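Lab notebook, bench 4. Still working through the backlog of constructs that have no structural model yet. Next entry is a single chain of 379 residues. Request: give me the structure tokens for it.
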Amino acid sequence: MRFRKLKIIPLLILLVSFFSLIGKSNAQPRLELQLAPSLELAQIVYVSDFDFYQQGANQFLFQITVDNSEMGQVEGYLQFEIFQNAESLSETQSNVFTLMAGENFTVSNIELNAGYSTPIGQENIRFEKSNTTTPSQEFEDEVFAGGKLPKGNYSFIVKYVFNNGSDETPPASASIFINNPTFIRPITPGTRAGDGYLEILYTQFPTFQYETDFDPTFSTSEPFHVQIFKKLDQHGSIDEVLTTQPHYDELMFTTVFPYPVAAVQPLDPGVYVWRVQLRMLTSSGTEVLESPVYTFRVEDPSSLGELDDEGVKSEVMRILIDLLGNRGEEIAKSLSDYNLIAIRVNGETITKKKLYEIIDGYEGEERLISDIILKGTQQ
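Model written out:
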């Protein structure tokens, strides 16, 4: 019995040593990739920021952590890649360097551009080779026009490639969505400054609305900066108006808001100028996209006579029904909860009396109504 036990013990030691060697042979350097907030949250990413080899990026974009605590000395290089969906856009490699046993360090893209010395081996690492490709002519044209990556999903991958040319570590990756907005513009109230027509409002409580191809759900703060200015007699130009203290100045998420808001003075009669600025985070810092400037005039509602009278509203709704039939009935029903604040024909704000005169002039004639815009405030 004692003889058998003595034979089993060396066998167990041999098995433990065998599995220990297997574990060591499967060990590899571990990599982590962390994007900088300026890249992870960016709505615009400039291609030049990733041109490490030719130009050198001076913006902090990412950092790579290399952990070789479970493996012996190896030789290879870092490879950083950018993909749009599954299409490779860029591949950047460092020089070949020796990664010492137990070595652990974190290095940024700026350090890899300038040169980084490893903590144990004192090996100098830097980006050395870079290749770029374009997945389509449309992609290339958009990049060439603005120097920005087009809207879409992008992935960043880093791995350590062993110098034998056939083995590499499991890649570390991170992904972002690039919004790349191109415009922001007012819709209502008013018309574009310099168009030669000034919209007249007979209400001190208009609803403001603007549009953009920016998606605010990808923003961590209020991206829209709305400013309303009152034009005074001494102002010689719109540019001069924009240098004065705004009548209303607010940051917001939404693209529609009713005026007034809490603790804001009403829009007294006069000419007003308004604009929207879109504040965006880019890979090179913060940028502002300006909207066109819109203007409008607020007139005393009493100058329209009895326009706010319920009877006048009913008469206008009846005219719509007479002109449009069933469609007019649908419109009238949808406006039952709204007050009438203005009547405008062919871009001109008119009184109820003027509307009747126009309709009387159409009697016996055939007219094509191509567009109807109804503005009002909800009760």
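Notes after review: The CA atoms of residues 16 and 22 lie 10 Å apart. Confidence is low (pLDDT under 50) at residues 1-25. Flag for follow-up if needed.
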